[in-house]
Amino acid sequence: MSPARLIVHVTIACAVLLSAADTSFGLEKKVIRINHAGAADTAVSEHQLYATLFADYINAKSQTLEVRIFPNSGLGQSRQVIEGVAMQLGSGASIHIGGMAEFASFCETKCGVVGLPFVFRNFDHVARVMDGSVGAALAAELEKSGLKVISYLNSWGYRNVATANKRIDAVADLKGLTVRTIPTPVFVGAINAMGAAAMPMDFGEIAEAMRAGTLDGFEHTAATVLSFKFYSIAKYYALTQHLIDPTVVVFSLAEWLRLDADEQALVMAAAKNAATVARAMAPVREAESLAELQKLGMIITHPDMTRARAKSVDVQWEMAAKLKAEDLLQQINAQAGN
User: Fold this and answer.
1) How far apart are CA 18 and CA 46, in angstroms?
2) Which of 58, 186, 248, 300 is most open to solvent, judged by the fewest CB atoms within 10 Å of its CB?
3) How far apart are CA 245 and CA 236, in angstroms?
């Protein structure tokens, strides 16, 4: 498997604002502020790695642009940032990096098709889909909402289920458990399809809800569990591998159009460079994160998901119909490979 073809998962958020800033030469630079929900650590956060590579590339090469990074949702929570990016509400955001499912309401819901349960086979499958006709179609949808796609990534690994007190050795063990997920219909449907009771909730509320006993568990990638020290609130981690949620990096279309041709070309070159490295690190960081979580005391289980995968086919088509994205699901399936 070629690392360059891998695409990174994330459940992340990034924002970029263009504004004037004095330089040491008395010139004014347009400042690109990158906000993301990940930790300020390139070893555990694909958001920080991408943002750092993107910033370093532009800051080293441009006389007119400057990039600054705001990790840990420094400029706001995902939905707030996306709305600011799309509608220019003055929230301080002009680029956002987040899970594609977060953009469903800005994409005539079709973006949700890439968040359907068990729809991707592996990282290569994600790359083929997002770099091909499906990614192009979703980019066109997002542009209608004022969002210019400059990169597709994915979280560093599959999304799995972490639980506080109950060990998950089989899909049936999920029945009745309250599991936090991203507040979108597709993610809620994916969790419910496995027998759990989905609890839509903002990312920043997970820890408090787990400590309060409001949640039995949550679903996310191993890298995220590690970077946010969620192993302190969850004892078990079941490798359900129910989702690889592609991540999208969007630039406010209004701000994008204010860049000249050379600046746009530089941003796209920086985006490509950062995405190539971040994608290649996906399987590496996933394996490292799982190993580290085990060392830290989490009990990792491997429930048999064969029947769940088979049952998910009907769920996929049912949800795709609601999203009016049956054509995109057909294309995703056609690009699955052997």
Assistant:
1) 23
2) 300
3) 21
What are the sequence ranges of the domains in the chain? 3-107+123-156+246-282, 159-243+293-334
DSSP line for 173-228: GGTT-EEEE-SSHHHHHHHHHTTSEEEE--GGGHHHHHHHTS-SEEEE-HHHHHHT
Choose the CATH number for 3-107+123-156+246-282 among 3.90.1150.10, 3.40.190.170, 1.10.760.10, 3.30.470.30: 3.40.190.170
Where helices occur in 19-144 by DSSP H, the ranges are 46-61, 78-87, 123-130, 133-144
Q: How much of the chain is in helix, strand and coil states, percent to nearest 5?
A: 45, 20, 35
Query: Among 3.40.50.150, 3.30.300.130, 1.20.1250.20, 3.40.190.170, what is the CATH number of 159-243+293-334?
Result: 3.40.190.170
What confidence tens digit (pLDDT) does each residue in 154-205 have? 778 899 999 999 999 999 999 999 999 988 888 898 899 899 999 999 888 9
pLDDT digits (tens, 9 = 90+) for 258-285: 999 999 999 999 999 999 999 999 999 9
Tokens found for residue 207: 């820890």
| Domain 3-107+123-156+246-282 and domain 159-243+293-334 have a common topology | yes
Q: Whose structure tokens read 């990169």?
A: 151
Residue 11 has pLDDT above 90, yes or no: no
Phi, psi of 214 (to 5 degrees): -70, -30
Structure tokens at 30: 């347009």
**Count, residues in the chain:** 338
41-62 pLDDT, tens digit each: 888 788 899 999 999 999 999 9
Query: What's the predicted TM-score (pTM) here?
Result: 0.84
> Which helix or strand (DSSP H or E) is residue 151 part of?
strand 147-154
